[in-house]
């Protein structure tokens, strides 16, 4: 178990807090985002796919994260072939309006493909594309990331159906109020499809690897630099021995969104008791 304290202010947070208090500004409205926790079964238990953001990135530079990013307006407006729970069902599970839920689910699949090359889509509602390596797929990832094409266009040109049934909602985290860049991020879990290889180095990340959840916990705060949402997710995933158990546990509406608060003296973050107990080794 890692000795990382999830309530400690991450690097740079103290300066942001001081600036926020000096300006006495209203909090920035969070942008809606999606992040996908790719899972696979390893010899040491559940493994998770992690990426390290380039240090020059304005948000979470140098931090280890799951694939993810903001909603593209076209995720809301464009029509895609859809398999799995309807947007109405996703709206109930995520606590969103139907259009916003559709956009968040599309963003989760699109960002996962852009950042890892894993594509949760297939020719029909019972299959996924067998492989996403090679120059054609690399160019598709680049064009999506550059917003030269819409995700719906990519799926339509290849005759693919969005496999939303492979996703499960996990949690929602909201960036603290004093941050200058804020996100309302919906985290999903999914089993990485057989045959597809995750490869995460991109314009936003400079390293990527699969890591056993227990190893990620042990390295957190030392060789793996993470923010509270990622660390708390490791704590939760460590309660399960198999990917199937994680997916079964996620088959429900997501819990209330988590927004870390502050101790009155501004010395540390506050988190729900659930995470404090897990960090202390209490189940």
TrEMBL record:
GO terms for molecular function: hydrolase activity. The keyword Isomerase does not apply. PROSITE patterns: NUDIX. Its cofactor is Mg(2+); Mn(2+). Keywords: Hydrolase, Magnesium, Manganese, Metal-binding. InterPro entries: NUDIX_hydrolase-like_dom_sf (IPR015797), NUDIX_hydrolase_dom (IPR000086), NUDT19 (IPR039121). Residues 30-236 form the Nudix hydrolase domain. This is NUDIX hydrolase. The lineage of its organism: Bacteria, Bacillati, Actinomycetota, Actinomycetes, Pseudonocardiales.
């Amino acid at each position: 178990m890692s000795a990382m304290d999830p309530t400690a202010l991450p690097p740079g947070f103290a300066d942001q807090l001081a600036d926020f208090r000096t300006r006495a500004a209203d909090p920035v409205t969070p942008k809606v985002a999606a992040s996908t926790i790719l899972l696979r079964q390893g010899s040491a238990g559940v493994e998770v796919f992690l990426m390290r953001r380039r240090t020059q990135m304005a948000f979470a530079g140098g931090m280890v994260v799951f694939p993810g990013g903001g909603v593209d307006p076209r995720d809301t407006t464009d029509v895609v072939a859809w398999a799995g729970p309807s947007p109405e069902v996703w709206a109930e599970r995520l606590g969103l309006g139907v259009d916003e839920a559709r956009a968040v689910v599309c963003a989760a699949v699109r960002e996962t493909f852009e950042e890892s090359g894993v594509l949760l889509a297939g020719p029909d509602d019972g299959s996924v594309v067998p492989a996403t390596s090679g120059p054609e797929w690399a160019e598709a990832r680049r064009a999506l990331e550059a917003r030269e094409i819409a995700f719906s266009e990519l799926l339509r040109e290849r005759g693919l159906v969005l496999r939303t049934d492979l996703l499960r909602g996990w949690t929602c985290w909201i960036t603290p109020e004093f941050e200058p860049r804020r996100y309302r991020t919906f985290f999903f879990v999914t089993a990485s499809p057989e045959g597809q290889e995750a490869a995460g180095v991109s314009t936003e990340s400079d390293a990527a690897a699969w890591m056993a959840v227990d190893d990620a916990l042990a390295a957190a705060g030392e060789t793996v630099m993470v923010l509270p949402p990622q660390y708390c997710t490791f704590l939760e995933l460590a309660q399960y021995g198999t990917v199937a158990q994680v997916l079964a546990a996620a088959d429900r509406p997501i819990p209330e969104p988590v927004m870390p608060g502050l101790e009155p003296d501004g010395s540390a973050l506050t988190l729900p008791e659930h995470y404090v107990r897990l960090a202390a080794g209490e189940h």
